[in-house]
Amino acid sequence: MTGLSLDVEVPGRLSAALDAAAGDVVAVIGPNGAGKSTLLSAVAGLLPVAGRVEVAGRDWNAPPLPVRDRGVGLVPQDRSLFPHLTALENVAFGLRARGERPATARVRAQEWLDRLGVGDLGRRRPHALSGGQAQRVALARALVTDPAVLLLDEPFAGLDVGVATSLRIALAEHLASYSGVTLLVTHDALDALTLADRVVVVDEGRIAQTGTPHEVAARPRTEHVARLVGLNVVPDGDVRRSFPPSAVTVSLARPEGSARLTWRGRVAGTTPHGDALRLLVTTEDGPELLADVTPAAAVDLGLTAGREVWLTVKATATTTDSMRP
Amino acid sequence: MTSAPSPARTPARAPSLGRPPLLLLVPGSVGAALLVVPLVALLLDTPWSDLGAQLADPAVRDALWLSGLTSALTVALCVLLGTPLAWLLARVDFPGRRLLRGLVAVPLVLPPVVAGVALVAALGRNGLLGGPLHDVTGWTIPYTTTAVVLAHTFVSLPFFVLSVEGALRTAGERFDVVAATLGADRWTTFSRVTLPLALPGVAAGCVLAWARSLGEFGATITFAGNFPGTTQTMPSLIYTTLQADPAAARTLSMLLLVVSIGVLVGLRRRWLVTS
Of A135, A141, B78, B176, which one has the fewest beta carbons inside 10 Å? Predict the structure, then answer.
């Protein structure tokens, strides 16, 4: 196969197996410290790992291939553009390092700057670039060497919403025509849903779930992803139930009836959500849950932080899936 | 009421955090006086009219030339040997690295005379390396201009290495990592990324090494002697002159001071401020 197939172990930090076909964009999501960046470092060869990292049928980890021979394009979270080189020289660096002649390297670097919409900024140093411009230059620098694997670490971190949106569109275009495998670390559900063919959820150093963006968003298996896509997920026997905050009923007294899906808890916070008010409730016996109420109901019930409430959801309003991955 | 601009429109002094406490003010002022008063005394006490005559003296001109030559060669040696050493200490994880870093810093605290004695033990005619060298080639190092440069390098190199190593550590390895992913080998990374980013530290290290070299006396006179024309640098000459003619020694000291400050100011304008 021409894609990426890995099964790696970084003691104490990550244990993960993953397969991706050439051209795939794989979003890696999960909470901070879950091991997302460790996964990128393992592929790039920046830390010692056990196991295999197979790219286009060749194992990069047996014996460990030096970083510079791997053919990875790395865009770190802080971009790490060389501050003493111009944007054009930054992009030309990889070509020059691989023995390309200066004139050719400059022409090709300029082509990539043009493609990413920053062709007129080639003479600027990184400190004179905005965050979005710097990210485009960093992408051009990574892509110009035609890497087998592209590693993007939080490419939209620290950017204004508008800048991030236009960059997301530009990135989607380039990833569509890119023939290598892309690993995109993100904490934004939107990135995963709009850019990725597949989503890998990392939690506590393990892969908790893989699937298409649609599958993962519809049936999240971790609380973190459930929160990202705005769903509640609770274990119930040997199945996992997920339900939207709008399906939750909030009351002050213990509800009548035989509904099994009932929790007692305290309101931890409230945020506006569309026309509704979204409550975050810390329950006594387990998960944090989201519940949407109308602003009028919130006033009537006095739903401020610290208030004790009962939550119920009808079983018919939930989707269930097996606990086994 | 309408004539002069109202003085109230000039901005008041910024709200202050209070007077400096005497406990800090007094010792601080004494410290400043200790540094400034000797220089002022030297300035007032210097027979300036002798300056021309002193400069015409061949012994003085030899010593000035030798001081300039040896300090320049010392800086060059520091750059050639110290930059790679600093890189090894900052970037390569080898056994004994911490020990070596500690040893590199030892000359900082070593009395210069002890440094001179150590150099004799290593490179003297009967020394650890000097003995075999003399047996094989017939060369002896002590009491030559080479010995002056080696003594200066011995005491200056730690300043240079620590300065450059600090700059390399501050710059961090993240740019090296990106360069490696882009296909650069370690030499390319060093020459095109690491070193350019550490240049301010290299410049600062050069100034420190040069200043240390220009003022070096103890190790030099112990290892290289005090021979006019070959090993008598300005500090050695000043020391010799002071025995016979204190006034002339003051003039020479002033000369060295002016040269040092002139070079420092010149370098500061060129290099140190820009980064």
Answer: B176
